[in-house]
Amino acid sequence: MSKQNIETSGLTLAKGTQLKGDDFFEVKVMENITVAVVCDGVGSATHGAEAAKRTTQFLVQSLKNRPRSWSMEKSIRHFIGNINRILYLESMEQYEREELVTTLTLVVIEGDRLYGANVGDSRIYLLREDDLTQLSSDHAMDEEGMENVLTSAIGLEEQVEAYYFENNLRAGDRILLCTDGLYNELTDREISEGIKVGASFLVKKASKKHHDDLPDDTTAVVIEIKELDPRLKLKQTSLIIQEEYQKGEEIDGYRLLRPLIQNNRTWLCEKKGVEYVIKFAPPEAVEDEVMLDLFVKEVWMANRLKAGFFPKAVVPKKRTHRYYIMNFIEGVSLKEYIAKKPLTVDLSVELAHFLLKMSQFLIKHNLVHGDIKPENIIVTRRKSKTVFKMVDFGSITEAYSGITRAGTPSYLAPERFMQAPVTEQTEIFAIGVTLYEALTRKFPYGEIEPFQTPGFDKTPKHPTRLNPKIPHWLESVILRAVETDTDKRYRNYSEMLYEIENPEKVQPYFDKRMSFIERHEMMVYKAGFILMFILNIVQLLFWH
């Protein structure tokens, strides 16, 4: 479930006048899943707070990196078993008794599915249309007066049997994870009303009942499902994915004319005399869920991004195969266009404007392109004017969402090779490399091969040395964009766009790594010429 579709809140308060309690929680909203964990360190155990923190962090990290081949149930049960055994054995070794002990509530949201588990007496509730339901099961004694005695907890025994459940989600659902410090103080009615406001409201309401002197540590986490991920519908539809497609084949009325890319999955096609581009899912998506998810995400992005920067894309309602359709744009890629000669300065300024405006449009949707390069830019004509279009949707992703080296190595910012996420600054670097290449047909740091981790210690050659037609202001903009030091590189699109639109405001760019001669080449040449001229005059006078 994407970050735009889910809202979370959480708060913990320590009991009495203590500054820190034994509870711990964490909520992690990721691109494909959301994980929330609440733990209540058992107060009778000296190291309950440590157990709560370690259990929470271990489970969030493990579920984030879980093997894709594992079911969610297997993952949850396996990781709970792991942390339980680790804490128990560590307690026995260090203290010879159970000291690292905590309760646990855990939920994972993936698409429209809710997965949950608990150990101990912390709880999970679901509020749906004012109907509050406890989804977890208390591991506590039933006898009157013994309700607070746990029958199971993380770290209490070497083996643990978590209570596990699954449910479907609906838009508008609210999920609450809380410790006994909350539900012991509030009625179901108060919990139902408080969930709608958020975690802070619930915890503070419980605290006010005791004049802000809580008898127990109290924690609440609330997750609100704003809407279900629209990608689910695209993924769940049963559609054909063929191993190969052939010229002349007809798919839902679209006749395949010729493949546009060597992988044979993107074709020029025709329907009722109009040419389109049809892009099919890769054959691996039949068995590989990761590949299917990536293609579904690409289709969703293509269908979602309605702007002139991209070709118009549609997903036919009655399609029988897994594909989407784009308008066919007559033109050539920028890579092909500059193979004959570099881009003119005027067109390069237009290109910079196009790429920055497109990137600003994406960032408003919390998105980044991720693979800006000449191969993905089409040069075409519109009303006798040369214009650009971005044609690749497959790399578009949420900004800051993941650590990946996806993209084309020669255009990746140095920090991307060090596992940094895609940001405005890394996109600006790719824009700078694209402009550098368009004007010089060279790369500022040389061509970088896949799986190579390059060094960026060399200063890029000034573009004006490769193309003297480039004005110095534009050279300064490009060099600042491809700066390896992020403190010197443009921080955001608007900063770079302002200088593209206001050349007279651009300050000369000098790289401190360059020698004095390199930075002041013309001045050195002029000084040298004048010095040689003077020496020649002196020599002539001396001989006469």
UniProtKB/TrEMBL annotation:
SMART domains: PP2C_SIG (SM00331), PP2Cc (SM00332), S_TKc (SM00220). The keyword Membrane applies. It holds the Pfam family PP2C_2. This is Bifunctional protein-serine/threonine kinase/phosphatase. Keywords: Kinase, Membrane, Transferase, Transmembrane, Transmembrane helix. GO terms for cellular component: cytoplasm. GO terms for molecular function: ATP binding; protein serine/threonine kinase activity. The chain crosses the membrane at residues 523-543. Residues 189-510 form the Protein kinase domain. The keyword Methyltransferase does not apply. It comes from Sulfurovum indicum. Residues 8-225 form the PPM-type phosphatase domain.
